[in-house]
Amino acid sequence: MEQSVDIKAINERIKEESSFVDLLTMEMNKVIVGQKHLVEGLLIGLLSDGHILLEGVPGLAKTLAINTLATIVDAKFSRIQFTPDLLPADLLGTMIYSQKKEEFIVKQGPIFTNFVLADEINRAPAKVQSALLEAMQERQVTIGETTYPLEEPFLVMATQNPVEQEGTYPLPEAQVDRFMLKLVLDYPKKDEEQMIIRHNLAKTFPKASCILKPEDIIRARQVVKDVYMDEKIEKYIVDITFATRYPEQYGLEKFKDMISFGASPRASISLSMASKAFAFIKRRGYVIPEDVRAICHDVLRHRIGLSYEAEANNVTSEEIISEILNQVEVP
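Below the sequence we write its predicted structure tokens.
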């Protein structure tokens, strides 16, 4: 009985603390037409302190979305266009010699900000990609002999275009794992596209207002951690992750030779954190199986390695995840 009272108290608190979510979504929707999934994904990443990889053709408002989010949260934003000739120093910063002081001083790069948009991350060579991924993982940058912590909140949204494969360097599987979510964007619907035309042809383009401060986000992250997750839900998450590693144990023998490697423990952590953030966005103080199912594809799609056999049979990680969700017992 005590526990249910507890959950009731948590629920009330979460309801109160998550009141800004509706306001934030409303401000985002002023500027971004449709793309509900993108806005939700950005919010989950922001609240659970995770980075986001976005895949979609050019022109789907990827840059606009993160720029708008930075405006709403009153945070610093920098956009880095990745190119094949980019160097790690262009991203992190470098030591430059000051004649006035007669010594080397540090010039910090564009990574020293709250929101980073790494545009077309697969265009940059491995050295630059690993410099960014290290900053994402360690939340710090080393220039010369000094290590500098990065500001909080720190969110990287990297985009990659699925269209051109020439002159691109695919992200190594092990490094893709650093991204909490991989969102795949689709074209807008007809009525949404009509709305987009109107927005762009209007005398003034809609602008979002600043309604939050970075410290509000940091506080909200602590509250998200307090969202109640039952042991049954934890087991459900572990089962889903294990089903990607040992499909035959879950009645999915057909995928045994299709998966070259399954999701890592980082996937289980991300799935738990994202489920709590999703419950928070839905203004609920506890996680239900539907929360896990809602974000499962985004958390796992880039964490399952497909074998040649899967590619030969046109089996995608999306299909494997859907089958796992149908097969694993829901608590």
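The longest strand covers residues 93-98.
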